[in-house]
Amino acid sequence: MLRLVSFIVISILTIHANGQRHCYSCNERERPEDCENVATCSAGEQCISDKYISEEGHTFFNLGCRPGRVCQILNQFGKRALPREITRDKRRLIHLCTKCCDADYCNKDLCADATPPPSTQKQCYKCNDLTKTTQCEFLQTCEPDQVCFSEEYLNDNGEFRINLGCQRKVVCDALSSAMKNNQQAGRDTGVNHLCNACCNTDHCNLTPCQNITNAFVAGRR
Known about the structure:
CD59, 21% helix, elongated
């Protein structure tokens, strides 16, 4: 019984340790909200934001991933307690704020002077010619009349590919209408187009197309 309990505990700890965060990852941004790149952290890493004054006197933000042990030290003692080999920073920078957080995309608002006002503009993954959505590490800030979009298709060589980005709401409405009409008539979509989907929350098109609500899927009745 003791061995069984030990195995379960070790398994739970291993699963937790293997969890990987998606964090905003940019250097020398004047505002954290200008960051449109995402990194998949290594197991055990957390998201971090560092606000500092450069040697030239400019205020910048660095965002990315850091090991959990570094974040633990930061949370307990603050930036000044970090040894040089951990900070990895040999320039003469004045660090105004360095904070970690342990949730996907959580470091965009860390160290900001004030909570930014709510925005109607979505941030969506933006990549083309993928074989799986998790390969994408770039974001796009959509226009006010756009939402996130995902498309699965076969290219000219018959190979499966994925496009991600922003799409106008009117186009999404047309896709939704076409889906209903095709389902009622029992028709399939074009041979090359396997799935089209729109969604209306930040980062939502990282989800596989067919798992997005109201996805327009070829052959689905």
